[in-house]
Amino acid sequence: MKIARFRSNGRIAYGVIQGDEVVEIRGSIYTRFRMTDTKFPIQEVTFLPPTEPTEMWAPGLNFANHLEFAAGVLGDENPTVPVHPEPWIKARGALTGTGEPIILPIGSSGDVHYEGEAVAIIGKTCRRVTPEEATKCILGYTCGNDVSDRTWQHDDWTFWRAKGADTFAPVGPWIDTDVDPQKLEMIVRLNGKEVQHGHTEDMLFSFAEIVSYISQQVTLRPGDMVFSGSTGVTVALKPGDVVEVEIPGIGILTNPVEAEAVG
Amino acid sequence: MKIARFRSNGRIAYGVIQGDEVVEIRGSIYTRFRMTDTKFPIQEVTFLPPTEPTEMWAPGLNFANHLEFAAGVLGDENPTVPVHPEPWIKARGALTGTGEPIILPIGSSGDVHYEGEAVAIIGKTCRRVTPEEATKCILGYTCGNDVSDRTWQHDDWTFWRAKGADTFAPVGPWIDTDVDPQKLEMIVRLNGKEVQHGHTEDMLFSFAEIVSYISQQVTLRPGDMVFSGSTGVTVALKPGDVVEVEIPGIGILTNPVEAEAVG
To answer: A88 and B216 in contact by Cβ < 8 A?
Structure first.
């Protein structure tokens, strides 16, 4: 099932995708809901980020083929392979939806990259869960773009703006509850041309392992998001670009790229 | 004026402190509100964290007299004085109120320290504000405890659990809208004995400068919290301790310390 959060005629609702329609639901996506008779053509609604998370989590360096590149960005001469997940927090305010622009900030050096990823959506409050239990705490999966300013990533003490500037967290278009999380292809196209192609089976730590690990010290809440980490080597975005993150079976997250307006 | 969020008889409300009573208000603390006729004795309500922030921000190393100590914790031989604020994000789920226990996690090495701080509460959505404008975006100030596991702070790549484990962010008891933010004493008492005494006039970057700096890349929202940073040298908490953060003129944030229950 594909569960979407959307706006139509100024009203925000949840719905289930059926063919080329979204069927509005009543109730909670985390507990119980039922279909209503209200339907909208997909083309006529605005899809929003699928949840309003308390927190967005991501694992540091979770793909071996991203290690050398990321170490170069950070200025580490001897890249370290993490021995357990190394979570960091992506600023909550950066969250944006499919179709919305990624804004290249005025203060940026311009070295802003896409990172196409899969994102787990937490469905139940969980604390101190095992990886097996963690699987049951995840409602489903969607596409995410961990947009990253490489200069700030290198220069700052934390990723607060490198990965947390406004619009740097496109997530969507909807949550798929039926996919196998470690069997997902993650494809990025820049202006229609494939520029990144990863697979979640190559994650150093699986979604279940990351969620379990975080939950040892921090309570995860319904709607919280857990990114997969990025793969390989990326290149810079420029104004006028269109970047798509596709996970076949789930859907496509599409964002145009704009320069920040002055004043 | 002192504005508090509290629970009474299972109901959550905002109120204004008048003498030894809290007078319930109606409306929004960020826009307009009015007093009601409903009053409670202070002793009979439970004070909650004064807002539900989107994000909690803190500046890395914001007091010169904390520099050497913090560098030792992090294993830096040559501590760096920040040339601009170096914000980091404190995990939102760690937020807790006065009177609630600070829980020492099972997985911790036990080296969990208090850090008594002042906390600015954002009152208006702000983006790209100057320090002068930032002052007008701040509703008021309260007490905070940036509880920190020094072993995790040293070993992990980020502060996700070192400063973000559940209960590691006591904030309260209420927001004071009338204080001079750079003229605040910050006193910590451990079991009644003073163990930390700082002053916000010693902040390397003022609240207005930190808010302005963050707002260049990230939109701050009503209720967001900005910590001052910590001063000096701290010591470890142990089960049974009571830690108080007092800012004279604002109030006292009091938290007992407990070991996490097994199982």
So the answer is: no
